[in-house]
C-alpha cells in the first residue's frame, strides 16, 4: 500500500470506532483535526512526517480513557492494526506516543516534550476546542452532561486537577471557557496554530462579553 492508501485505511478505522460518540469526539471532530493538522504541516518550515502526523490526527481520540473502558486494550488493538496496514513497529510506536500524550489533562500532569509531529496534532486538536466550533462543542458537551449554563456564584476553578475537572456538579459551561478554552491559544506549539488561534480567541472573548451584557439585562 502507498501512503495515501494507508491513510485511507486509517480514516476508515477511525470512522468505524468513533461513529457512535456522544461526547463531542465524533468523527466530525476527527475530520476537522486532520484538516487543521494538514494546514499546519503545509505552513510550518520545520518538516514533520505527513503520514505519521495525519495518522495520529485520525487516531488521537481512539484510546482516550474518557471514551473507552480499557484504553490499554484499545492501544494494543491500534498497534496491531497499524502493523497490519503496513506501518513499521517503530512508526506504530511514534503514532501511539502521540495519541497517548496529546490530551489537555495529560499535558497538565507532566510536561512531556512531544516530537514535532505530535506538537502539530496537539495544536490541531486544541484549535478545534476554541473559536465558534469550540463554543458549540462546549455547549454540546455541557448539555450532554447536565451542566448549568452559567452561575455567577460558582467561581471558575483555578486548580486544574484531573479529578476536579471531571466533577461536573460544580461546573458551568461559561466557567469552562475560563478554566480551559481561553488558555489554549497561549499553549499552542507552532507559529501557524498561534496565528490561527488569535482570531478564534478574540471571537470567544467577544462572545463572553456579549453573554455577560445580556445576562446583566442590557437592552
Ligand atoms: P480532548 O480530550 O479532545 O482534549 P475533552 O474531552 O476535554 O477534549 O473535551 C471535548 C470537548 O468538550 C471540547 O470541545 C471541550 O472544550 C468540551 N468540554 C470538555 N469538558 C467540558 C465541560 N466541563 N464543560 C463544557 N465543555 C466541555
Ligand atoms: Ni480530540
UniProtKB/TrEMBL annotation:
SUPFAM superfamilies to which the protein is assigned, alphabetical: HD-domain/PDEase-like
Keywords from the UniProt entry: Hydrolase
Hydrolase keyword on record: yes
Gene Ontology MF, one: hydrolase activity
Transmembrane as UniProt keyword: no
Ranges for domain HD/PDEase: 22-139
Region forming the signal peptide: none
PANTHER family reported for this sequence: HD_PDEASE DOMAIN-CONTAINING PROTEIN, SUPERFAMILY HYDROLASE, PUTATIVE (AFU_ORTHOLOGUE AFUA_1G03035)-RELATED
Protein name from the UniProt record: HD superfamily hydrolase
